[in-house]
Each structure stands twice: as C-alpha cells, then as structure tokens.
Amino acid sequence: MAIELKKKAPTAHTFLEVVRQRYGTATHIVYLCFGLATNILVTAMLLTGGSAVVSDLTGMNTVAACFLLPLGVVIYTLFGGIRATFLTDYIHTVIIYVIILVFAFTVYATSDLIGSPGRLYDLLVKLAETSPLAGNAEGSYLTMKSRSGGIFYVINLAGNFGTVFLDNGYWNKAIAASPASALPGYVMGGLAWFSIPWLLATTLGLAALALQHNPAWPTYPNPMSAADVSAGLVLPNAAVALLGKGGAGAALILVFMAVTSASSAELIAVSSIFTFDIYKTYFNPTASGKRLIWITHTTVIAYGLVMAGFSVGLFYAGVSMGYLYLLMGVIISAGVIPLCLTLMWKGLNWHAATFTPVIGFIFAITSWLSTTKGLFGTLNVTTTGSEMPMLAGNVVALCSPLVIVPVLTLIFKMDNYDFEELKNIKSVKDDYPVEEETTIDSTEASKTMAVVNEEAIAARDAADQLILHKYSKIARILTVVIALSLLIIWPMPMYGSGYIFSKKFFTGWVVVAVIWGMMGLLAVGVYPLIESRLAIAHTLRGIFWDLTGQSYKLRAWQNAHPEEMHGHVQRGVDAQIFNAPGSPPPELSEREEKE
C-alpha cells in the first residue's frame, strides 16, 4: 500500500488527501473521523499501558505518569518533526532490542531461577500438572492449541489491520521514504518487528507463568490478577523476578522507549491531518508554508494535552490498555477494505467508498453489544471486554465490507476512475526568506539552472515511477507469501493438530526466536548505519564546515546556501568548482571574516 500511494499520489501529504481527491468532501470527512479515531485509540493505549507500568515499577501517581510520558515527546516532536520521529525510532528501537536480548539470555543462560530452555520447559510442564489451563490441549502451556489464543489471534488480526491501514503515521513514513527504500524498508521492518512480540512472549511471558509461584515473584504468594494482566504488567513483574531492581530499570526503559517512540509518530500523524486535511482544506486553502508549520506545532501541543487528560479519564473509568486493544478493531476496522480498494481498484464507486465504513461500524457496534447482552445480560467494562463479544465485533467490522461493497457496487454500478488524477494533489513548499546579498550577476545563470533543475526533477520522477512499478509487483508477491507463511502455514497445522511441544522442539523454538531477535537488531540497528554511511559522512562534514566558518566563505563566493554547497561536494561538483582556472574564492573583508 505504501508503494501504491507513492506511485499514484506522489505529492500527497496524508492518505486522506487521496480520499478527498478521488471522492470529494463527504467521503473525506468519513475517513477523517476513522483516521482520527485510530490515532486517539493508539495514543490512549500507549498512555494507559505506559502509565500503568511506570506506576507499578516506580510508585509514581498514574495521573502524573499520564501527563509526564507525553511531555518529552511533545517537545522533541515540536522541534524535530518527522525527522525527530525517524531518529528517535532508530535509537529507541536499538535500545529495545538490546534489552529484549538481555532478558532472553538471562532467562535461557544465566538466571539462577531458570537458566536454560530445558529448565523453563520443566517448570511449564509442572505448572500444567498443578494448574492446567482450560481451553488448551491437555491443559498444557506448551501448545498452539488454545481457545483463548485462537480468539485473540482473530481479534489481533482484525484490530491491527485497522491500526496500520488507518493510522496516518504509517502513511507519513511511506510518504517520507525514498522510492528505493519503500519495499526493502517495509519488508525488513515487518520481519524484524515480528521478533519483538514473539521473543518477548517466549521469554518473559513464559517466564512469568513459570515463576508466579516462586518467592522471587513481586506479588508472591498471590498470582497476577486478570486486571494486572490486562494493564500490561506481565513484562515488568517478570523482569523484576529475574533481575530485581536492574530488571525493573530495564523494563522501565524498554516501555518508555516504546511508548515515546510510538507517541511521537502519533503526534506527527494527527498534526498532519489537522494541518493538511482540516485547516488547509476547510479553513485556509491559501495558507503559506510558515502558517502550516505554526498550525502543526499548535496541534502537537494541544493533542498531547488532550490525550493526557483523556487517558486520566480512562484510568478512573477502569478502562485498561488490554480493553482498548481488543476494542480498536470494532471501532475502526470497517474502513480497511474500502480504503485499500480506493488505491487498488478503479471500480470502487462513491457510494461504496462513503457508506461502507459507516454501515460496517454500525454493524460492528451492534454485534459487539448485542453479543454482550445475550451472553451476560448486562453491559459494563468487564462484560463488554470479554472474549466473545470482542470477537464478534472485530470480525464483523473487518469482514462486513466484503458484503457491503459488492452490494453497493451492484446497486450504483462500478466506477472507472483514472488514477492519474491523484497526481493533481498539490504539494506545499516551504517559504524561505529571500537573501539580499548577491555577489555576482547571475540572472541568466539562474534561468539556465532553473531549466536544468526542472529537467532533473522530471528525470528523477520518471526513474522513481519505474522503480515503484517494479517494486509494486514484487511487493504483491511478498505480501501473499509472508502472510500465508506467518498466518496460515506456520500456526494453523500446530493449532489444528493440538501438538504439545517436546523438550527438543521447545529448545529449537527458543533458539530460532533468539536468532530472529538478533537478526532483527542487525536489520534495524546495524544495517541503517551501513546504508547511510555516505549521508552521515556528508552531514558530519557539513557540521565541520559550519563550525570552522568555511560554509560562509563558500556562500559569499557562490551565492548559495551552505546545504547546497555541501550537496555540490557530495555529488563531486567540488572538483569542477575549486579546480576551475581563474575562479579562486575571493578574499573576504575583516568584517565578513568575523561574520
């Protein structure tokens, strides 16, 4: 989908601009609501879960944690924008991987409480004998055949389709990525990401089960309550049991890194929507670049404060991260299929695009609440958050468009949209102040340079389209192969057969999980440094030039911004500039030297 957006709407700032360009205002407002609902739900999950963990580990008041967690995020997002999001994503993810691998090697190699995959296996077998888990094959904790696990599998798929496809944060990164990076970046990122929940669950999830009846467990002799599990306290409690205060510190850093990194992306996503899809579209279509930046900054601050207050309200209402995680698909996933078809199928008509998400949302809410009422007779946080009502709501939300879209297409006929129209979306250019200093008469040179730049841009765009066209085919194949492998071929036979892991199989499972985690660290921690080595060297060289004053001399000589001069050097043009006979840099006056 990232490649389709870049190929068909290369000048779009948000996915909502594509919706408006194709269908108009009414449809735009519908998807605007779904997009904002997605961002609000994700941010609320981050703050409720993060504040619960911080409060559990440090004793900090939960309300204070709700406000303090987004504070630093707002500050660096305010000044750094999406660049800050990229940089913090990188740094935070590297830290997260390091901490996860520390936990893995502790559990499977160095811990006095466990120390090996075989020891963990024995503890889980013993636990199944004393406290068998209802709904699992033979009550075992070492099987994929799990009733609750199967239900969560479906809910997780339905909900996360919504939070990925309707979260403008993912589209922002697709827009910002270079065409050559879109395919390998998303594939490597997706495969690397999979190691995080898999390795964490295999390590700290199973360690928590094995250690709950050990005196080292923080709540011993009491096991964790369902409310604590839903609040996300399994990981920090297991970390404390394994490593004491060091484990608490590591868990706190891990959660803080994850929450702040993801929150930054949500701030950027919401500020982009308010800036381009609300303010510029409906209030000030002629707004300048500077004005839009001001709106973006204002939105970042306002959204941070509003979500902090909203999270406090959820805390007092007893709504946990787990509840929101199960609920998100019910609220938003009806918009997934029509949004995909908006970019992929020219036949989707206005009626199907506009009404399908709304009708699907109504069906999902009705299914969720009616199932709750039928099973429990009452509606409250506990009953509405149970498995079967959430399963019904999520499945109806994601799958109902499969019926609604064909029906509305048959009634109102197929469209025949020309995707070339999406290229009419206008990009917003920054407003740069005009420099008054000019050392040479370069009118003709400027005209020539403008023509050269236009030709270069056109050539670059044509090359980008060729790359995207090629990547589009590869991406479709990879999408099918990876989805079938990870969602069907791997788990389904293990689920259907009711296979209970042997000790050798479990050891192999652990080894593969750890290797996958290490490969993930290489993919997102080491490879980006290698890939960006030239850009890093270029940036460091530019910083050195600025600190030593060389940028000013070049600027006075060539009447160019330092970034342009740095770019010339990077592209090898410096050889032509500095070695051109008869054109040495002019001597600067004493005042100019000081400046």
UniProtKB/TrEMBL annotation:
Annotated transmembrane regions: 29-50, 62-84, 90-109, 150-171, 191-211, 223-244, 250-279, 291-317, 323-345, 352-371, 391-412, 474-493, 505-530
Superkingdom, taxonomy of origin: Eukaryota
Encoding gene, per UniProt annotation: DUR3
NCBIfam families to which the protein is assigned, alphabetical: sss
Protein name: Dur3p
InterPro entries: DUR, Na/Glc_symporter_sf, Na/solute_symporter
Organism (species): Sugiyamaella lignohabitans
Molecular functions per Gene Ontology: putrescine transmembrane transporter activity; spermidine transmembrane transporter activity; urea transmembrane transporter activity
Entry keyword set: Membrane, Transmembrane, Transmembrane helix, Transport
GO (cellular component) term, any one: plasma membrane
Membrane topology: Multi-pass membrane protein
Similarity-based family: Belongs to the sodium:solute symporter (SSF) (TC 2.A.21) family.
Pfam families per record: SSF (PF00474)
Subcellular locations according to the entry: Membrane
Presence of keyword Lipid metabolism: no
